[in-house]
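Contributing new records

If you add data, match the layout below exactly. Sequence lines come first and carry their own label; structure lines follow with theirs. Keep one chain per record. Anything else will be rejected by the validation script.
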Amino acid sequence: MLRRVRTRYGKVEGIAAEDPCITVFRGVPFAQPPVGDLRWRPPRHVEPWNGLLQAHDFGPSAMQPQWDSRDFYGREWQMDPESPRSEDCLYLNIWTPALCGSGEARCDSRVVANGGLPVMVWIHGGAYQCGSTAEKEFDGSALARLGVVVVSVAYRLNVFGFFAHSDLSQQSSMTAMEPCANFGLLDQRAAIIWVRDNIAAFGGNADSITLFGQSAGAASVLSQICSPMNNGLFHRAIMQSGAGLGMFNAHVRSLAQAQRNGSRFLAFIGAESVEDARCIPADELLDAAERFPAPDGAGTVPGGWSMPANWVPCIDGRFLNDQYGATIADRKQQAVDILVGNTTGEFMETSSDGTRVAAGEQGNLELLHTWAKSGAGHPYYYRFDVDMPGDNAGVFHSSELWFTFNNLGVCWRPFSGWHYELGDAMSRYWTRFAATGNPNGTDGRGNPLPIWDCFESCTNAAMHFGEHTYMQWNW
């Protein structure tokens, strides 16, 4: 079944999901292709199109190292290593339960009468270097069945999204001081603006937008919260396993540091200028970015992978003005409700006194304490504690994704009954938070879910998600 709607830029045609009550629009462009002279520039508004855009398949993934299906995460998500990658990658996908009919679709009258459905905008992770909206765990159908519109967005990664150079600052000064760095984060912002301006056609409420993301996607959500450019653009935020104010978010590099790294990269590839580098084919540029050594002082690079030490956000003076912790402490972040969490034992590190600590959890606690102390509101905190069946991986980074999207049925792991109940519960907490700012509600049978209390600095109040779901205090 095909359904068509009209956006500000032209008509798009989606296709019914496995559940025909859900319509999926894949590969909808939200910005012009960032190629040629638009490489390393902020995203430009997409050009209107004539005729009908068939939004039946995902757009290409952003340029990134090729997936290896033999690696742990390659096996977990079972991505096709031959799936297309392109510098032309700025596309989003929409799952909506609000459309009726076939052909020229209409929004359900009840949805229209209520002002539209809450909208959840997903930002994927991948250390800012890799990742794709086409990963099967990110299918938004199960969440959409709970009465929300789900949007997943792609953005430029690695050298394409996080290169900086003084030449770009000079170009910026000649074009009304547009941002000169953080292009991947600006892509995310452009997608959110597209959602705000167009989501009503899909049955969504532009005044009820929740950002949610995991790992680098959660860190990206934190960046969007702390950006002064985003006033009123979204209303709630969920940050899953993004390390809070610790680890890679503890200190964001300066623009000068990022530009020095960019100059070092141009010397590495033998380019005289940014203009010369814009002429290098995308495959060659990616190959060079993979081989580019980490800067001096970067410390130990896990697995020898230098890319996360080179291609990350910076404080550019436009999109980001200060460190995340300082922005929140000074109450300069966006006024949004937040829900934060992590898997238990995430990112274990050894402290100076030899103690083993879960650095991911510690970073989240620092974020929550700073948020609460600033008087910005009462956040919600969770700890995901499920030993994943099928191997000895235990509770690993990203394992909660199967549950928050409630897509256990397409995973290779031998889940049992309580796993499916937990996936149903977590997806309901997430969608309820997106609708109201409070995750509490009922299960599929109308029975109350376990009460989730707000985080309190004095007790570190957290919801424990596992075989049994319950609140933890002073853990």
